[in-house]
Amino acid sequence: MKSTILYEDGDVRTYLLVMDKGDEGFSEIVTFAKANDINAASLTAIGACTSVTLAFFDPDKGDYVSKTFEEQMEIASMIGDIADDEGAPALHAHIVLGRRDYSALAGHLEEIHVFPTMEVVLTETPAHLRKRLDKKTGLTLISPRDSTGV
Predict the structure, then answer these.
(1) What is the pLDDT along the chain (150 residues), one digit of tens a residue?
(2) Which structural domains are found in the chain, ordered by start?
(3) Is the Cβ–Cβ distance between 146 and 128 less than 8 Å?
(4) CB of 64 within 8 A of CB of 105?
(5) What is the DSSP string of 69-112?
(6) In angstroms, rounded to a whole number, what is the distance separating the alpha carbons of residues 140 and 90?
(7) Would you call 29 exposed, middle or buried from its count of C-beta atoms within 10 A (0-12, 13-18, 19+)?
(8) Which helix (H) or strand (E) covers residue 144, if one does?
(9) Phi-psi map region of 51: left, alpha, beta (phi>0 left; psi -120 to 50 alpha)
(10) CB 58 within 8 A of CB 86
(11) What are the two backbone dihedrals, phi and then psi, of residue 30, each rounded to the nearest 5 degrees?
């Protein structure tokens, strides 16, 4: 993966991350966030991949159900955030993928193997986003109260 800073003004920085063939994009983004002390950010991405593991939250099971798809696909859209989860950056992203037959897959991103590239624009936010356990769902979700200090 290659990266560069596109913009910097005080506490706000915007980065371009360019994934290489074979990179596992999810872990690359988390590793970059850790290395650059980023615990609050938003991100978007486009590109292509050879395999992806997607998930959806099944409220009846109280957990995510995952499935891996192994085929060449276009990343039509990826949007997500990074928030502090007990001192570590946690990536939460959703993705829409275009298949060869022009149908689409979408879901909660768990893993993605890049080919030939994935371009990510990551923008820090000045306020820290914090995840807290939501007792109703059992998930760690961004807590607006904790994030803004209100």
Answers:
(1) 999 999 998 878 999 999 999 999 999 999 999 999 998 999 999 999 999 999 999 999 989 999 999 999 999 999 999 998 888 999 999 999 999 999 999 999 999 999 999 999 999 986 665 666 667 777 676 666 544 443
(2) 2-148 (3.30.1330.80)
(3) no
(4) no
(5) EEEEEEEEEEEEEEEEETTEEEEEEEEEEE-TTS-EEEEEEEEE
(6) 10
(7) buried
(8) helix 144-148
(9) beta
(10) no
(11) -65, -45
| pLDDT for the residue numbered 30 | 98
Q: How far apart (Å, rounded) are the C-alpha atoms in residues 140 and 143?
A: 9
DSSP string, 24-61: BHHHHHHHHHHHTT--EEEEEEEEEEEEEEEEEEETTT
Length of the chain: 150
